[in-house]
Design a protein that fits this description.
The structure is a single chain. α6 (about 155-165) links the parallel β3 (about 140-145) and β4. The relative contact order is 0.10. This protein has helices at about 5-15, 35-50, 65-75, 100-110, 120-135, 155-165, 185-190, 195-200, 210-225, 235-245, 250-265, 270-285, 360-370, 380-385, 395-400, 445-450, 475-490, 505-515, 525-535, and strands spanning about 55-60, 90-95, 140-145, 175-180, 200-205, 315-320, 325-330, 335-340, 350, 385-390, 405-410, 415-425, 430-435, 435-440, 455-460. α4 runs parallel beside α5 (about 120-135), α9 packs across α10 and α17 (about 475-490) crosses α19. It has four domains: about 20-30 and about 210-290, Helicase, Ruva Protein, domain 3 (Orthogonal Bundle), CATH 1.10.8.60; about 35-205, P-loop containing nucleotide triphosphate hydrolases (Rossmann fold), CATH 3.40.50; about 310-460, Cathepsin B, Chain A (Alpha-Beta Complex), CATH 3.90.70.10; about 475-525, Muramoyl-pentapeptide Carboxypeptidase, domain 1 (Orthogonal Bundle), CATH 1.10.101.10. Helices cover about 40% and strands about 15% of the residues. The protein has 19 helices and 15 strands. The strands form three sheets. It has an eight-stranded antiparallel sheet. Strands 2-3-4-1-5 form a five-stranded parallel sheet, with helices on both faces. The chain is an alpha/beta fold and about 550 residues long.
């Protein structure tokens, strides 16, 4: 009997659709890894951090968001290291439910350090220290990567902190990458682990993908599997997103089941009905995960992420702006007065796209809002500056509608993400900036680069931790009521607004969302709150400075 998971049946299904291999396996094959904005950011932190001076890197994410696949991508990259990079010795721990002695023994085994069968903690630590000093003298880095790290005990986590004390006068001898579910972040907030928490040099958190990224991920995996034609209709792709919530593992499960269902009915393409049936078979009677908040114009979003891995540098116009031609103006921000550079008209010339690391570009964007702020990842921005990141795939026309400075990211032909900040848009050109470098680029040239990865900043209150839905409570709900009052010209007479998200405020918000052209779902997510801030004219930097 051939079961659904039979390799024989999978081969038949693949042949039916002209595929060379199964595109939607849930195995963490790094060849199929689709680099969304979040995955690019996580990968940049890992790559840079593990070549740095030691410390701890934290990678967290919900179940199925691709954490283990990024780990496998890192393992694969070790075989393709650049000559300028320090070689890496890796200890990879997959099952971390260990005691302190078991952890140290496992590390010694992974690093091929000879020890007795059962040693004391001191013996293990001495052996590790000796090995690390020898590796450092040979110009090698040593990395410990622990998957499912939310299963580590507090005692073992404290021992990991002690391992980071192994150092020379110039650098730490050990780098540690902790990978786990969101519970790991909560675990590290414990008072007894505060010293370990302070040793973390980079934090990345993977969340669900957007609708555009979901579509790009599906096409990417089909292309890797050898597909040379569209298999999913546009309606089917939207259905996958709605029913998976943008979670990569669920995307794969639904799509794999849909291929099987289409084959069973002798279909060569996959429509929305097939997706609906596949999701029903996977989830049963349970509700699918909620999709991310999307604007009504989501179907217009630029699908250029399909070609992220193939974007090459093109010959379109940019030119660094002479510093003596720069003019400074002052624009009110939510926090303080912000000095912003307003350039004169600059003629564009044919040249390569200029940009740099997304982390540095993000810091440039933060400093548009707060000139002296120092933050290069979204978690640090929220903690230190009171601003939130908003990631979306936008066209230039949509970016103009948002009317705020934005970081755009494009993949260069060197395989790395290159980013810059769009400071203004005129009729035919854009001014871009990366750190102290500024230049002008024609809009046609910019559009032809097919950028689709955009990061905006918006002012959020400290108690905003994600979309607000029915039955949520907090002072932020009262503030939303008050903003809607201001928007509608309503004065509250007697009493106060409730602190619970109930039917009344949900109805008011749906009305506002319809007026703004947003999906009227009654959920107060980032996109809705950005529009609400603008509706009550909360001061912020603007994009189209020359037109104001």
């Amino acid at each position: 009997m051939i079961t659904n998971n039979s390799p024989c049946l999978q081969s038949v299904v693949n042949a039916h659709f002209g595929l060379q291999e199964s595109p939607f396996s849930i195995a963490p094959d790094p060849r199929f890894l689709f680099m969304s904005h979040q995955h690019q950011e996580a990968w940049a932190h890992i790559r840079v951090g593990l070549q740095g001076e030691g410390g701890i890197i934290l990678l967290t994410g919900e179940v199925g968001t691709g954490k283990t696949t990024i780990c496998r991508h890192f393992l694969a990259s070790l075989r393709q290291q650049d000559e300028t990079e320090r070689p890496i010795d890796l200890a990879y721990i997959l099952h971390p439910a260990l005691s302190v002695n078991e952890l140290l023994h496992t590390l010694c085994e992974e690093l091929t350090i000879a020890t007795a069968a059962a040693c004391s903690v001191k013996t293990y630590m001495d052996a590790l220290n000796h090995h690390l000093l020898e590796s450092h003298a040979k110009g090698r880095n040593t990395v410990v990567m622990i998957d499912e790290a939310q299963n580590l005990s507090a005692e073992v986590l404290e021992q990991l902190r002690l391992l980071t004390n192994l150092e020379t006068s110039e650098r730490k001898l050990l780098q540690i990458l902790l990978v786990g579910q969101p519970e790991l972040r909560e675990l590290l907030q414990r008072h007894e682990l505060r010293q370990l928490n302070q040793r973390i040099t980079a934090r990345c958190h993977l969340e669900a993908m957007t609708q555009v990224e979901t579509r790009a991920c599906i096409d990417h995996r089909l292309r890797i599997a050898g597909c040379d034609k569209p298999l999913f209709t546009a309606a089917a792709l939207r259905g996958v997103y709605r029913r998976s919530g943008g979670i990569p593992r669920l995307i794969n499960l639904i799509c794999a089941r849909a291929l099987l269902g289409a084959y069973a009915h002798a279909k060569t393409g996959i429509g929305s009905a097939v997706i609906q049936q596949a999701a029903k078979e996977i989830f049963g009677s349970s509700s699918p995960p909620p999709a991310n908040e999307q604007p009504v114009y989501g179907w217009l979003l630029l699908p250029a992420l399909l070609l992220l891995g193939w974007l090459a540098y093109s010959e379109y116009g940019i030119r660094p702006m002479p510093k003596e031609q720069q003019v400074t103006t002052v624009v009110k921000s939510p926090v303080q007065q912000v000095s912003m550079v307003v350039p004169p008209t600059v003629k564009t010339e044919t040249a390569m796209f200029y940009g740099g690391s997304p982390a540095r570009a993000l810091q440039t964007l933060v400093q548009v809002w707060q000139p002296h702020a120092q933050a290069d990842d979204c978690t640090e921005i929220a903690r230190s500056s009171g601003l939130q990141c908003f990631h979306q795939a936008l066209t230039l026309a949509q970016l103009r509608q948002f009317d705020r400075p934005a970081m755009i990211t494009m993949m260069g032909d060197d395989g790395y993400a290159h980013a810059a900040v769009v400071r203004y848009l005129s009729g035919d050109s854009a001014q871009l900036q990366w750190q102290d470098h500024q230049w002008s680029m024609g809009l046609k040239a910019l559009e032809q680069r097919r950028f689709a990865d955009v990061t905006l900043l918006w002012q959020a209150t400290t108690d905003y931790h994600g979309p607000i839905r029915r039955n949520d409570t907090g002072n932020i709900i009262k503030r939303i009521h008050q903003q809607l009052d201001t928007r509608e010209g309503v004065t509250l007479v007697g009493g106060t607004h409730p602190l619970r998200w109930d039917t009344a405020i949900q109805t008011r918000l749906k009305t506002f969302q319809r007026q703004q052209g947003l999906k009227p779902d009654g959920v107060a997510g980032a996109l809705t709150l950005m529009h609400l801030n603008d509706a009550v004219t909360i001061p912020r930097p603007h994009l189209q400075l020359l037109s104001k």
